[in-house]
Design brief:
alpha+beta; 6-stranded mixed beta sheet
């Protein structure tokens, strides 16, 4: 039985075969559980709570038992943002020599169309994944996410704001740490990072990773006091041995802060938006956290198919093929509705402007 290679489910199968690019924030801190994080609804259910640190009470035997209240948690219904890049294919594209194609023995327009379809899906997938990586990083930096959705390539539409703390509280952002004295101007970075670690540990949260920008990484590696401590053969405080572990992210080493070992990751990756290149993680900042502190969730995609009916898909990526016979062109779209959320309240501590 013949099948339609432009069918949504067939295209979705092609997308699933694409090997995703390795991403530091997305892979290490915001994995997706396909059984619980992909929702068949327009909204996703976000739950996060404080870690329970209370102990069980001693009870006189004749008293029986002591009721224990359930720990409080917050639950919110949030509508994920919509991401839908597309790629147009025209007759002119099919007449041109393809990238890497032989000059003399070329492909037919039909063969080029199939090859470009696969290439377009890969390009769209990589762009969405880079946006998800940005979302994960911004969620950790701001303990929330804020941006403006576009109506077209140049016109801003609705603002999108979500925070995982009470913005009206006088206490402010619980995941924010302020450095009193910059580390390259007389401050003690070991004391500040130890305080950040203790903040997480006191709330029952793990602290295993120290994420730093490039300027902070350079300061740590050039710190004479630290180098002297590491050179002491009678005490083991860690080691510095830079090694690239993720694209644009280098593992600098492992240092001990008040008894807690932290793996140090220096982020130098950049992203481009509207022609402007920015760093994925600020060069002068630092953050303490642990792997799997959050998860990337996905809402349902609704779209009209060739049968003129609305179809719904509960998937991470949903492709759509649209052909325009009048202009001899076709458009290939890849849609996604992701949302990055923490498992617990403030499972990271972020310190901006540590140096400089």
């Amino acid at each position: 039985m013949p099948f339609n290679i432009f069918d949504t489910y067939y295209l979705a199968g092609m997308v699933q075969e694409i090997v995703p690019a390795q991403s530091f924030f997305l892979d290490r801190y915001f994995p997706t559980n396909t059984a619980t994080d992909i929702f068949d609804s327009n909204k996703v259910l976000v739950e996060y709570r404080d870690r329970d640190r209370a102990m069980a009470p001693f009870v006189v035997r004749r008293a029986g038992d002591i009721p224990i209240a359930r720990g409080g948690y917050e639950i919110h219904e949030i509508e994920p943002t919509y991401i839908a890049p597309s790629r147009m294919l025209t007759m002119d594209d099919l007449q041109r020599r393809g990238f890497g194609e032989a000059l003399i023995v070329g492909s037919t327009p039909q063969q080029r169309a199939q090859a470009l379809q696969v290439q377009d899906l890969e390009d769209l997938e990589n762009r969405i994944r880079r946006r998800e990586e940005w979302m994960a990083a911004q969620t950790m930096i701001n303990n929330g996410l804020t941006f403006e959705a576009l109506i077209d390539n140049g016109e801003a539409g609705e603002p999108y704001d979500i925070y995982f703390y009470d913005t009206t509280s006088e206490e402010g952002n619980p995941a924010l740490y302020t450095v009193e004295t910059k580390w390259d101007n007389g401050g003690d970075f070991r004391t500040d990072i130890e305080a950040m670690v203790n903040d997480l540990l006191d709330r029952g949260l793990p602290a295993t990773d120290l994420i730093v920008g490039t300027d902070v990484a350079a300061m740590i590696q050039d710190d004479e006091k630290l180098l002297t401590i590491l050179d002491n053969r009678r005490a083991e405080y860690g080691r510095l041995a830079p090694d690239v572990r993720y694209p644009g992210v280098a593992w600098i080493g492992n240092l001990n802060f008040g008894g807690t070992d932290l793996d140090i990751y220096a982020v130098r990756e950049t992203v481009v938006e509207n022609g402007v290149t920015t760093r994925l993680f600020p060069s002068t900042s630092a953050m303490v956290t642990a792997p799997n502190c959050g998860h990337m969730m996905y809402g349902r995609i609704d779209q009209m198919e060739d049968d003129q009916q609305i179809h719904s898909y509960a998937m991470k990526r949903v492709p759509k093929f649209v052909a325009d016979k009048k202009t001899d062109s076709r458009s290939l779209r890849l849609a996604s509705r992701p949302l990055a959320a923490p498992y617990c309240k403030a499972p990271w501590i972020y310190a901006p402007d540590c140096v400089g």
